[in-house]
């Protein structure tokens, strides 16, 4: 059974604006899939539906055997917490918590904070020595690596990355992409949303969306 | 982790919370000052009003009956008196601390050198009175007639022949402070008295001799007796219950009676005085008592109104600041939800931050408020305001209400906050 199965997924806002129409997508465990498309194509809407932050208005979405199509907000919150790790373009680290505390926040809402495990996650992405620094004291590449460590800390079944290299210089882009390659080799399932052809090319499979429709896979 | 997050937010983003703390401090300081003043204003205003005289007069019971039934003050050939040795009991009643001062009176009429009639009043000036409890209190007209102006010196109660002479009488007799005056009683006794001072006050005292009580008692053969007692007491403004009791104390139920007895209404204090002085009738001087009550009521209402307004403005300020704070942090709070935080957890986290800032501001505001109260006390009453510990829980409850009410818009915003909207846009 696929890890993620989208069948005929549609999304309408206010019954008028059609953001997605008839999307079918299947992602197997260990896959690395890139979703590409121009601005306004519906990539982010698809990402929000897969990431349990929004619900589709049509079709069905099954994640890790759980049908999340009609799940309520508390149920979506639990699935998001237990099964998904999120990496954001703008990092979204809590500004008044140190790097390690930002990782521990995800542990706190999932189960129990464990500083040593959080430090190990930071070491995994090469920023352990910056554990006690605030986000404002970290470079963009370091912040993104902390964000990846936070996404990994609860052993998610799916890593969702929204433009993970969008705010990074070339050196840091390479660093982050190297981490994603390693994660893929370790068997993690990764879904990235990107404009970048380089990031798209790094994935095993590329899905292109235009005007809410899937154009190519 | 919860407290680590709260601590991190407070310590590493002080600026955001300092304004909330200051707004709460402002509201709490005004509330503390107004409540402390409101609690103490009763005794302060009461003490000020005591300068206008006694609010209870005590006379023999029989004399009251005659006055009530026949409209006469004295029956010819038969006059009742109160016992001087019982007067100390006035300071042993339930509301003893509310008795500011009291003084006995015994009137008579003597004759001067040329046979002219001289009214005389025997009283205590500033008598050191030993109570049945072995305590000693100083009481007398010295403290009750604060408007009397004495040219010279007040007599000593222990010096029986030292007297005050009213200013008009002194003028007619051509005497001044330091002179002596010889008087003759109806019984034929003559006495030479030392005039220590000339008294004026705009009343009957200007036409008479004010002598130590012991002297009048001795010369009139009324040892240990007094005609009346004036009592100055701090009282609670009268209400329906007090008026009902004044009309007929027996109409009260047991529960009403207990409340009335244990409240410092002028009527209940008078009632308690009657209980400790044999055959006495204590009459509240209601015009004074009611005026005092009205002034107190208005002053306390004003204080409470200012308290409510200051807390309302504080709640509005907190509401604006907290709402702005939460909107500014919407991405951060949306992230917490994206990471799996429930609405309740996020709301509790934000409330904990607000309450931590509010409590610090509240403690600071409380002490500033005590300072404000002292400034008000010194400026208005010329003395400090007593710090009332009951203000602390009241202010704590009011501050909690201000913070909760002020946080309502922010909490509503938090509950409707969707992570998809603030993290990715939708």
Automatic annotation (TrEMBL), chain A:
<feature type="domain" description="ABC transporter">
    <location>
        <begin position="4"/>
        <end position="217"/>
    </location>
</feature>
<dbReference type="Pfam" id="PF00005">
    <property type="entry name" value="ABC_tran"/>
</dbReference>
<dbReference type="GO" id="GO:0022857">
    <property type="term" value="F:transmembrane transporter activity"/>
</dbReference>
<dbReference type="InterPro" id="IPR015854">
    <property type="entry name" value="ABC_transpr_LolD-like"/>
</dbReference>
<dbReference type="InterPro" id="IPR017871">
    <property type="entry name" value="ABC_transporter-like_CS"/>
</dbReference>
<dbReference type="InterPro" id="IPR017911">
    <property type="entry name" value="MacB-like_ATP-bd"/>
</dbReference>
<keyword id="KW-0813">Transport</keyword>
<dbReference type="InterPro" id="IPR003439">
    <property type="entry name" value="ABC_transporter-like_ATP-bd"/>
</dbReference>
<dbReference type="InterPro" id="IPR003593">
    <property type="entry name" value="AAA+_ATPase"/>
</dbReference>
<protein>
    <submittedName>
        <fullName>Putative ABC transport system ATP-binding protein</fullName>
    </submittedName>
</protein>
<dbReference type="GO" id="GO:0005886">
    <property type="term" value="C:plasma membrane"/>
</dbReference>
<dbReference type="InterPro" id="IPR027417">
    <property type="entry name" value="P-loop_NTPase"/>
</dbReference>
<dbReference type="GO" id="GO:0016887">
    <property type="term" value="F:ATP hydrolysis activity"/>
</dbReference>
<dbReference type="GO" id="GO:0098796">
    <property type="term" value="C:membrane protein complex"/>
</dbReference>
<keyword id="KW-0067">ATP-binding</keyword>
<dbReference type="GO" id="GO:0005524">
    <property type="term" value="F:ATP binding"/>
</dbReference>
<keyword id="KW-0547">Nucleotide-binding</keyword>
UniProtKB/TrEMBL annotation, chain B:
<feature type="domain" description="MacB-like periplasmic core">
    <location>
        <begin position="18"/>
        <end position="233"/>
    </location>
</feature>
<protein>
    <submittedName>
        <fullName>Putative ABC transport system permease protein</fullName>
    </submittedName>
</protein>
<dbReference type="Pfam" id="PF12704">
    <property type="entry name" value="MacB_PCD"/>
</dbReference>
<feature type="transmembrane region" description="Helical">
    <location>
        <begin position="389"/>
        <end position="415"/>
    </location>
</feature>
<feature type="domain" description="ABC3 transporter permease C-terminal">
    <location>
        <begin position="305"/>
        <end position="419"/>
    </location>
</feature>
<feature type="transmembrane region" description="Helical">
    <location>
        <begin position="344"/>
        <end position="377"/>
    </location>
</feature>
<keyword id="KW-0472">Membrane</keyword>
<keyword id="KW-0812">Transmembrane</keyword>
<dbReference type="InterPro" id="IPR003838">
    <property type="entry name" value="ABC3_permease_C"/>
</dbReference>
<dbReference type="GO" id="GO:0022857">
    <property type="term" value="F:transmembrane transporter activity"/>
</dbReference>
<dbReference type="InterPro" id="IPR050250">
    <property type="entry name" value="Macrolide_Exporter_MacB"/>
</dbReference>
<keyword id="KW-1133">Transmembrane helix</keyword>
<dbReference type="Pfam" id="PF02687">
    <property type="entry name" value="FtsX"/>
</dbReference>
<comment type="similarity">
    <text>Belongs to the ABC-4 integral membrane protein family.</text>
</comment>
<dbReference type="GO" id="GO:0005886">
    <property type="term" value="C:plasma membrane"/>
</dbReference>
<feature type="transmembrane region" description="Helical">
    <location>
        <begin position="302"/>
        <end position="323"/>
    </location>
</feature>
<keyword id="KW-1003">Cell membrane</keyword>
<dbReference type="InterPro" id="IPR025857">
    <property type="entry name" value="MacB_PCD"/>
</dbReference>
